[in-house]
Amino acid sequence: SIATLLAGSFGGQKYDEDPKRWWGVTNALEDVARAIELATPVAPALFLPLAASATFVRCAALTGRGSLINGSFMQHFGRKSNLGDIRAKLEVQGRWLALVGLPVGIQVFQVVSTSAAGFVERGDEASAFAVAFGAYGTVITAHCLSCWQSARALKFDILNRYRLLKLADAFVDAENDELLDVDALGDIEGVYAPRVTPSTPTFGADPSELGEDWNSFIEALRLANTRSYVLGFDPKRSSSPSAMLLNRASPRDTFAAALACQKLQRLASSATTAEARRAQDTIAMRVNAYAYADARVLEFEAAMIRSGWRVDFVQLGVAPTFVVDIAASS
Fold first, then answer.
1. d(CA 250, CA 247)
2. What pTM was computed for the model?
3. ∠ CA(149), CA(152), CA(153), 5° rounding?
4. Phi, psi torsion values for 321, nearest 5 degrees
């Protein structure tokens, strides 16, 4: 269906980069579909549009949820290469829930129907609607809270852009302290907490996010020299530091880019106003940030390993990478 195609086309890489949030979103969308279906008796003339809308939303939700369960979550749970055992347990759990859910659902329906019918007989239709929607609203709310709690309990040791920048920020702030471990940073990450704030660098930038014009882009490439990332200042976000990743960047290059970005953020934030920042030598700031990352990236990587993070891969999601001949551009 169109919903499945759209969910698969626009959500695929986003599911991998931020599975906790998308688990919550896809389950909430399924509850939205249920709510639309429950609203059909209120507007019988709109039954077909409402039913079609509910089916559309549910298909999108199920595509995302299935992708997460069979992809990101299976990889997370199967750390001991026991994917078959985990899949079998999930199937058994699903069967038990279906067996229990059917009689419970029938019982809830009977109780709600009886209560609502009693109000209708007394001429109190408003109370009948309140009972019906209140009961099903309670079920949907409980489901949403359960899905949120299950997503909140997940802890991923794979680095994505958010986790990497958080760790780089902590390293630049206190180089001699141990970094946050998987559990601690997972609690901070949460499910619906914002991933990007006004102070977050643009990590995984495109050329337009490195400077205000073509000359700024060429200057940024020249300063990068032979590195696999390019630092700049994003004009779309009040000249916030940005980093463009090249296609050849290894995980260690990505670590260095995160370190350099956060170091550049510290140097740029020392200017209290935009005018003062423009007056500063932005070239010198970037040279300083590059040198810092070059000198400290191995220590940063070792600190992440000690804290239990995987350093063989960085999940960049939809962040673009580019093939650029820096020598030719210079």
1. 9
2. 0.81
3. 90
4. -125, 155
